[in-house]
Design a protein that fits this description.
Length: 727
C-alpha cells in the first residue's frame, strides 16, 4: 500500500491530520484537475461547477471504497458543489469545504505561537465569513498533540468523519471553513488524541453556548449597533484616581428575578438595574463572572467558556445592550475575570487534546487544592495568548470599562494554600510564581497600551509589594488593589462588643499607615457575607438597635475613609441573612422600617460621597487626609479631615464607636471658621436615636487635640457626623 492509499484510508478511519492534501481539487498538469471526496455511504457522487449551472458530472468510486474521484479538463480553479445519492434515495448536496485555502495566515500563526496575537479571537473559534463569494463559518482550534480534529455539530449529525480539519503544522492550530454553516448552528470539536482516544470538546474561543446542562458551542455573529459613545467620553474624565468611584457588585442571577423565579435577561436587567444604580448613587457596576460556566453554585468563578457571555441571561448582543445602556446612563461596567484557574469538566479546557494543554501536568503546579480546579500554565505562550486576547476581547468587543482580576494571590505564590512537599520552588528556590508574575506584568502592559483608561483591579490579599506600581518601575501594573487588610481589620473591630473596642483600637486606625503604598479600593464584597460568615448586620454586636447603628457606622466609615468603594448588592438593605444565590436579594425587607431606613441611609450616604469632592479627589494624595485624633482608644473616638484639591472642600469627620452620646464635646480643628453639619448617621429618619443634631458652629480659640482652635459639638452614640467648613 503506497503513501496515498494509506492516507486515504486514514481519512475514512478518522486518523488523518491533512485531509486537504488528498481531498478537494488538485492540479494534475496539462490542464487537468482531480477532485476527490470521501463518503462511505454514498451510492453515487456528482460534481456541479458553479459556472456551469446545474450540469452534473459523474465521479467514480476508487479502488478504496468510500473514496470518490473525478478528472476534469480545467485551466482555472472553479468552485463546485458535491451531489451525493444514497441507497434509500436520499440526496445530499453541499459545497465541498476541502476546495478552500487556509484562512489563517502564517503571520497570525507566528504571533499566536509567540503569544502576541492579541486579536486571536478574530480567527480562533467559529466565525461567519464569505470566502470566494461563498458564505460559511471558519472553525479554528489549538490542539497540538491531536492526531485528528473534526468539527461535529447539528449540521453533520455530530459525525466526526464528515468534517476533519486541516492541521496547520507545528503551530498546533487546526482549521476548516465549512460552507453553509450559519448562526445558531451547534458544534463541538471531536479530538482523536495521541493516546488513540476520542474527546468531545466545546470551543475554547466559543462566544455563545447552550444553556447548562447542555454544553455545545453555538455559532453567533454579533449584529449589535452601539448607541452610546466612548465611555468615559474624554481623557480628563477617565482619570479615575481623582474621580468618584462607588462600585455596586452584582450577581446577575440573583439581584432580582421574575415572579416565577426565572432569571431576568441582560436587557431586562438594564431596564431595572441601571435606574437603580443611578438612584442609589453608584458610579459603576461590577458583574460577578458572566462568562459561561457549568455550575450555578460557583457564582461564575469556574469558567468553561472564557469568550462567552453566559446564555442564562440571553445572547452576547443582549449583554452588549446592557453595557451600552449603562454607558448611556453614565455608569461604568466592570467585569469579574478569572485567569487563575478553570474547572475540570471534561467538555471544556481540561486535558483538552488529551494532554495537559492549558494547565500544568504536575498537580503541584497545575491543580488548586482549595477549589478542585486546574491552574493555567502561565509559561506557555499560547496559554498566555488565550488569556490576554480574552481580556482584550471583553474590553474591545463589549466595551467593558475594566476587569476585576480574581484570586491574584493564588497566582503570585507557588505555595498558596499548600503544605510542605505539595509545591515546587521556582528556579531561585523561592515561592514566587515567576511565570504568573511575568504574565500579569505583560497583561497589564498590553491593556494599558491599548486601553489606557481601563480599570484593572486586583483582588490580592497578601502584602506583595507594588501591585499598583507601574510595570516600568517593577510593579505589577494594576490600576487598583482591593484593600483586604482594611476590610479584615475593620470587620473584626466592628464585630467586637463596644466595651472591648478600646483594646483593639489599632484595627480601626492601622490602615492609614500603609494606605499610600497602593491605589486601594475599600471592598465589602460577596465574600464577606457567605459561607457562615454571616451578614453585615448579623456580625454586629448588641441588641437590634445597636446592630443597626453599628452597621451604619461600618458603612459610613468605609465611605469616608480614603480609597475608592465597592459594596455588594443587598448590603444596602441590612439583611439578617447572609447572601444565598438561590434566594437572592431580600427586597421584601423594605416593608420594615429598620431596613427601609438602612436603604435610605445608604442612598443618602452615597450621594454625599458623590457631592463632596473631598471624599474622592485626593484619595491617594496625603494632603487629602489628616488625622486630628487617632489615639483616643479609651473613648473609642476618632476624628479626621478630608480635603479636595481646590482647598474649598474641607470636611471634619468625628466618629464614636461606643453607645454613649457626647453632648458637649470639645473637638479640635485644623482651620478656624464656621462649620455646618451635612451628615449625621444617627438621625431618626435612619432609625437612629436622634439625640444629637448639630447646626452651625463657629470655632473658638481654645486648644484641643493639639490644635489651637476647636468646636463644641455633640457626637451621637455608635455614629458619626460630617461637618463642612464654610468658605
Amino acid at each position: 500500500m503506497n503513501e496515498k492509499e494509506t492516507a486515504l484510508k486514514s481519512i475514512l478511519a478518522g486518523t488523518c491530520n491533512q485531509p486537504h492534501k488528498y481531498l478537494g481539487m488538485h492540479d494534475m498538469g496539462a490542464g487537468k484537475k482531480l477532485i476527490r471526496i470521501a463518503s462511505i455511504e454514498a451510492k453515487s457522487a456528482f460534481i456541479c461547477f458553479f459556472e456551469k449551472g446545474e450540469e452534473l458530472h459523474a465521479m467514480q468510486e476508487s479502488s478504496i471504497k468510500g473514496i470518490w474521484e473525478g478528472q476534469f479538463e480545467l485551466d482555472e480553479w472553479p468552485l463546485y458543489r458535491v451531489h451525493l445519492t444514497y441507497e434509500d434515495g436520499q440526496v445530499y448536496d453541499y459545497i465541498d469545504p476541502y476546495q478552500f485555502l487556509p484562512q489563517i495566515t502564517e503571520d497570525e500563526l507566528y504571533l499566536f505561537n509567540k503569544g502576541d496575537y492579541r486579536r486571536a479571537y478574530e480567527k480562533m473559534g467559529s466565525h461567519k465569513m464569505v470566502v470566494r463569494g461563498v458564505e460559511g463559518t471558519l472553525f479554528a482550534v489549538w490542539a497540538p498533540t491531536a492526531q485528528r480534529v473534526s468539527v461535529v455539530g447539528s449540521f453533520n449529525f455530530w459525525n466526526g468523519l464528515q468534517h476533519p480539519m486541516r492541521s496547520l503544522g507545528s503551530s498546533g492550530v487546526w482549521e476548516l471553513f465549512i460552507p453553509g454553516v450559519t448562526d445558531g448552528a451547534l458544534y463541538k470539536y471531536e479530538i482523536y488524541t495521541q493516546f488513540n482516544t476520542l474527546r468531545l470538546k466545546s470551543d475554547p474561543y466559543g462566544v455563545y453556548f447552550q444553556l447548562r446542562p447542555d454544553t455545545a458551542s453555538i455559532v453567533f455573529d454579533s449584529k449589535y449597533k452601539w448607541q452610546a459613545g466612548q465611555f468615559p467620553p474624554d481623557a480628563e474624565s477617565a482619570n479615575s484616581y481623582e474621580k468618584p468611584m462607588n462600585i455596586y457588585e452584582v450577581h446577575a442571577g440573583s439581584w432580582r428575578r421574575h415572579d416565577d423565579w426565572s432569571w431576568m435577561n441582560y436587557r431586562e436587567m438594564a431596564d431595572q438595574l441601571i435606574p437603580y444604580l443611578k438612584e442609589m448613587g453608584y458610579t459603576h457596576v461590577e458583574l460577578m463572572p458572566i462568562m459561561e460556566h457549568p455550575f450555578d453554585g460557583s457564582w461564575g468563578y469556574q469558567v468553561s467558556g472564557y469568550f462567552a457571555a453566559t446564555s442564562r441571561f440571553g445572547n452576547p448582543d443582549d449583554l452588549r445592550c446592557f453595557i451600552d445602556r449603562a454607558h448611556s446612563a453614565g455608569i461604568g461596567v466592570i467585569l469579574d475575570w478569572v485567569p487563575a484557574h478553570f474547572p475540570k469538566d471534561d467538555f471544556a479546557l481540561a486535558r483538552f487534546d488529551g494532554t495537559a494543554l492549558y494547565e500544568h501536568e504536575d498537580p503541584r503546579l497545575g491543580e488548586h487544592p482549595d477549589w478542585g480546579t486546574y491552574i493555567f500554565n502561565f509559561g506557555r505562550n499560547e496559554v498566555k495568548n488565550f488569556l490576554i486576547s480574552n481580556a482584550l476581547y471583553w474590553l474591545r468587543e463589549f466595551r467593558a470599562d475594566g476587569l476585576r482580576i480574581d484570586a491574584v494571590a493564588s497566582m503570585l505564590f507557588l505555595d498558596y494554600s499548600r503544605s510542605t512537599g505539595e509545591w515546587i520552588p521556582n528556579r531561585y528556590g523561592g515561592n514566587e510564581n515567576l511565570e504568573a508574575i511575568e504574565f500579569m506584568k505583560h497583561l497589564n502592559s498590553v491593556i494599558s497600551g491599548e486601553f489606557p483608561n481601563a480599570l484593572i483591579i486586583a483582588e490580592e490579599s497578601t502584602a506583595f509589594g507594588g501591585v499598583t506600581k507601574a510595570v516600568e518601575k517593577d510593579g505589577l501594573g494594576f490600576t487598583y488593589k482591593w484593600n483586604m487588610g482594611w476590610m479584615n481589620d475593620f470587620l473584626r473591630y466592628m464585630s467586637k462588643d463596644p466595651i472591648y473596642r478600646k483594646y483593639h483600637h489599632n484595627d480601626l486606625t492601622f490602615s492609614m499607615l500603609y494606605h499610600y503604598s497602593e491605589k486601594f479600593i475599600l471592598a465589602i464584597s460577596h465574600d464577606e457575607v457567605v459561607h457562615g460568615k454571616r451578614s453585615l448586620l448579623n456580625k454586629m454586636p448588641g441588641d437590634d438597635w445597636q446592630k443597626f447603628a453599628n452597621y451604619k457606622l461600618l458603612m459610613g466609615i468605609m465611605m469616608l475613609h480614603p480609597g475608592k468603594k465597592l459594596n455588594f448588592m443587598g448590603n444596602e438593605l441590612a439583611p439578617w441573612n447572609e447572601w444565598n444565590e438561590t434566594q437572592g436579594v431580600e427586597w421584601h425587607l423594605m416593608q420594615w422600617m429598620p431596613h427601609s431606613a438602612a436603604y435610605h441611609y445608604i442612598k443618602n450616604l452615597n450621594h454625599l460621597y458623590l457631592t463632596e469632592a473631598a471624599l474622592w479627589e485626593m484619595d491617594y494624595d496625603p494632603k487629602g487626609f489628616t488625622w486630628i485624633d487617632a489615639d483616643n482608644a479609651s473613648d473609642s473616638l476618632i476624628s479626621f479631615v478630608r480635603r479636595d484639591k481646590s482647598g474649598k472642600g474641607h470636611l471634619l469627620i468625628v466618629a464614636n464607636f461606643l453607645p454613649d452620646a457626647h453632648y458637649d464635646f470639645r473637638q479640635g480643628v485644623l482651620e478656624a471658621g464656621t462649620y455646618s453639619e451635612i451628615f449625621n448617621s444617627d438621625l431618626a429618619e435612619y432609625n437612629g436615636s436622634g439625640v444629637v443634631e448639630n447646626t452651625r458652629h463657629a470655632t473658638e480659640p481654645i486648644a484641643a487635640h493639639n490644635q489651637p482652635n476647636s468646636l463644641m459639638i455633640g457626637i451621637p452614640p455608635l455614629g458619626f457626623i460630617v461637618l463642612k467648613k464654610e468658605s
